[in-house]
């Protein structure tokens, strides 16, 4: 029971630990899993028809669809499927008669499989890959698509920009071997590409503002501490001063009592507080006399 809880805790926190380096879930293995699964599900497909593939329940949230295309008509007309507008004049290579395209929308799994350092996704990661159509499992290799005319357009239906309305949106493309390419968005929700892969839209983190607020907070805290310390210091000084004053008063009172006693002995009627003054008076008189 305890062990199970530990394992579940580890599983829950491990994606966070791996953030910034390499994601715990391998994108390549996801791609090949989806590819294999889609090919198994697609039995005798009609060319040109899109098929939705429902993945196993533990991948719930990822949308996958697959379509078989004729290279000739693809070159002549292009296709508009899912989030992708593929214009005419895209050349599949090697030269095959038919090929398959698998589309993915990772939805809420986007940041599980992909992450752009210092950026936040504001759209799901979507992707497409082209494969050989003779789906004899072992032969499900990718084929390349060479764009000879206009670029492929990726249309994101819902770009969610919450905190920073003015933030610069950037298109990002994830290629092979962890390649990450940035480009400008068009109309804030369209990206252009000359290759297949995974795509999304990101906004940069606003690090500077955060550190500014943090610094500002520290200033306030420091100021408060300073004020409290100052008040304490003043209190201490006042208390010490009062104590000293009381002590001094007492001493002076005692001394004056003593000197009064002395004075009364010397001068008799005089009730002057200081004996010293009285004692110096004759000296002054003497100096004035000559
Ligand atoms: C395939 O899935 C998409 C989105 O999940 C949905 O809009 C579409 O109607 C589905 N198509 C079919 C043929 O089931
Ligand atoms: C989901 O289950 C399949 C087997 O049915 C397994 O291969 C895959 O790794 C699992 N995926 C996750 C994310 O747990
Ligand atoms: C795809 O959409 C564009 C513009 O929305 C349109 O011009 C083009 O004819 C469409 N292509 C196909 C094959 O439907
Ligand atoms: C995504 O959402 C589905 C439900 O819509 C949920 O079952 C799944 O666990 C979620 N995946 C992640 C990675 O949060
Ligand atoms: C991310 O931001 C931190 C601090 O703002 C910086 O040190 C780091 O180099 C950045 N990473 C990348 C990959 O730009
Ligand atoms: C599938 O097509 C590729 C290239 O067109 C070819 O090399 C391979 O032998 C084919 N495989 C099968 C099982 O037909
Ligand atoms: C947004 O950016 C524009 C120019 O890029 C600027 O004029 C405007 O003041 C900015 N708005 C906010 C709220 O930052
Ligand atoms: C992207 O946009 C920025 C500012 O909006 C501009 O300076 C830059 O030249 C653009 N890059 C390209 C490749 O269009």
UniProtKB/TrEMBL annotation:
Q: Which residues cross the membrane?
A: 218-244
Q: Which UniProt keywords apply?
A: Membrane, Signal, Transmembrane, Transmembrane helix
Q: Which GO terms describe its cellular component?
A: membrane
| Record carries keyword Transmembrane helix | yes
> Where does the record locate the signal sequence feature?
1-18
Q: Which InterPro entries match?
A: DUF1191
PANTHER family referenced in this protein's UniProt entry, alphabetically: LEGUME LECTIN DOMAIN-CONTAINING PROTEIN, PROTEIN, PUTATIVE (DUF1191)-RELATED
Q: What protein name is recorded for this chain?
A: Uncharacterized protein
């Amino acid at each position: 029971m305890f062990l199970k809880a530990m394992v579940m805790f580890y599983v829950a926190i491990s994606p966070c630990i791996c953030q910034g380096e390499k994601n715990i879930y391998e994108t390549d293995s996801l791609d090949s899993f989806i590819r294999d699964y889609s090919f198994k599900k697609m039995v005798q497909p009609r060319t040109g028809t899109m098929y939705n593939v429902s993945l196993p329940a533990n991948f719930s949230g990822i949308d996958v669809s697959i379509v078989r295309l004729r290279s000739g008509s693809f070159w002549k007309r292009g296709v508009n499927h899912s989030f992708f507008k593929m214009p005419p004049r895209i050349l599949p290579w090697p030269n095959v008669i038919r090929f398959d395209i698998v589309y993915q929308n990772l939805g809420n799994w986007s940041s599980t499989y992909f992450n752009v350092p210092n950026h936040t996704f504001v759209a799901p990661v979507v992707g497409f890959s082209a494969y050989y159509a003779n789906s004899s499992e072992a032969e499900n290799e990718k084929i390349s698509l060479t764009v000879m005319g206009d670029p492929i357009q990726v249309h994101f239906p819902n770009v969610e920009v919450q905190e920073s309305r003015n933030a610069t949106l950037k298109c990002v493309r994830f290629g092979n071997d962890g390649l990450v390419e940035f480009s400008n968005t068009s109309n804030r929700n369209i990206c252009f590409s000359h290759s297949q892969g995974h795509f999304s839209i990101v906004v940069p983190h606003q690090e500077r503002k955060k550190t500014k607020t943090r610094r500002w907070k520290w200033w306030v805290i420091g100021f408060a501490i300073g004020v409290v310390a100052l008040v304490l210091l003043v209190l201490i000084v006042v208390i010490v001063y009062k104590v000293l004053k009381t002590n001094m008063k007492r001493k002076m009172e005692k001394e004056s009592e003593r000197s009064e006693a002395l004075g009364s002995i010397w001068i008799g009627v005089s009730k002057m507080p200081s004996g010293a003054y009285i004692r110096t008076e004759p000296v002054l008189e003497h100096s004035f006399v000559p």
